[in-house]
Amino acid sequence: MGLHHGFPLRRPDGAPGRSLEDRRTDRRPGLLAQRRRALPGKGRRRPFRKRRGRRPALPPARLAARRPCREGFPVKFDIALPGTNHLPGRFGWARELPPAGLKRILKVADALGFASVTVSEHYAMPYFEVPRLGAYWQDALSVMAFAAAATEQVRIDATVLVLPYHRPLQLAKALATIDVLSGGRLNVSVGVGHAEQEFEALGVPFRRRGAITDEILTVLHTLWQEDTPEHHGEHFDVSGLAFEPKPVQRPRPPIYVGGNSKPALRRAARHDGWQPNPIGFTLAEIPPLLDYIRAQPEFAGKEDSFDLNWLEHPSDVDLPHSFAGQDLREYRDRLVTAYTSSYPATGVTRTAIGVPPGIASTGEYLDYLHWFAAEVMSAIS
Questions:
Q1: Which of 53, 89, 197, 272 suits a disulfide with 254, CB 3.0-4.6 Å?
Q2: Which residues pair with 310 in a beta bridge?
Q3: 42 within 8 A of 36, measured Cβ to Cβ
């Protein structure tokens, strides 16, 4: 079976071969080193091992993830964690992913310099939505804590936490704890939610979800930033309580707001970033909405720090179904073009990577992450 940049080519009968990641446990003398050489940068020496008396060099992709992503800087890349939900038609191989498999993915994402790992949130799914969204959704906060424990560099995010589902005191405590245990690597991405039956099951008034979201954000600010927090609002009341620990990031972790409505855009302008809802929405529709955000008084001073997280793969770049060398070269070139032209031109600073549908195992997925970091992220940075 041949190799191209770490991808296993199909056997003549069309069946997938074992991936490099799956074969790295092979202990026959000399074979492990041979196979490591098949991946760019995967020689016998570990390139990022600490040496006495000097700091280890970071790979270009990790350096890019640590830079502010503005005009002239590369787009940052996130990974939606496989297996944490069972969206129909996506990550079918990850439906039985064990905890060790998820930890393995997290550690590779961490080592390769991806900016964030993300999880989504639902507590239950209305039956009519199951064909579209599936019924299996792991608890987002629990997954975030698991990811924090398994990694050292990558940021931890949820796209998005549905704020009205939560009591603000409990949520502030959980998120602050994740920020402490991760050493200050928490992103807080939030939205108002859309599943009315889920709201009813949680006893939350669906029609008031926008106002509840705004008030929860106010309570989070108060609990995280004030030594003697006090809040008296329409839905929540906090007073006479000490709140510790505070988040490591000061004055608070960055908050990104999801949604395309005018209230969502104004909410984003008051915070640190915007995540458009890509359902029925295209990259070309972003600029006028981003202009609306920038026109808000609360946006002043954020020109060089505001993030825009677009969750979609470039619409004009088809994901390859096979891993033939020519297909991958064309795929890489078109990705690099999109990520250095159309994405920055519309204001995008973060995006989730697309995954070819032909991937059929954890090992193949990890090979793809290696390839993406070596061929796409390094070219952009």
A1: 272
A2: 351
A3: yes
CB-based contacts of 138, cutoff 8 Å, min separation 6: 84, 85, 119
Bridging pattern class, strands 7-8 and 231-232: unpaired
Q: Tell me how far apart the alpha carbons of residues 225 and 171 are, in angstroms, rounded to a whole number.
A: 15
**What would the two tokens of residue 355 be?**
């995954």
Domain boundaries, the chain: 60-380
**Three-class DSSP category at 221:** helix
* 284-305 pLDDT tens trace: 999 999 999 999 999 999 999 9
249-252-257 Cα angle (round to 5): 120
Please tell me the CATH superfamily of domain 60-380, with its number: Luciferase-like domain (3.20.20.30)
The span from the CA of 58 to the CA of 111, in Å, is 10
- Confirm if 141 and 214 have CB atoms less than 8 A apart: no
Amino acid found at 243: F
The DSSP annotation for 292-320 comes to: HHHTSGGGTT-TTT-EEEE-SPPTTSPPP
Is the distance from CB of 122 to CB of 198 less than 8 angstroms? yes
Tokens of residue 75, six digits: 């787009």
What is the pTM assigned to this prediction?
0.82
DSSP state of 256: E
- 87-117 pLDDT, tens per residue? 998 889 999 999 999 999 999 999 999 999 9
Based on its alpha-carbon atoms, the radius of gyration of the chain, rounded to whole angstroms, reads 22
CA distance 308 to 274: 5
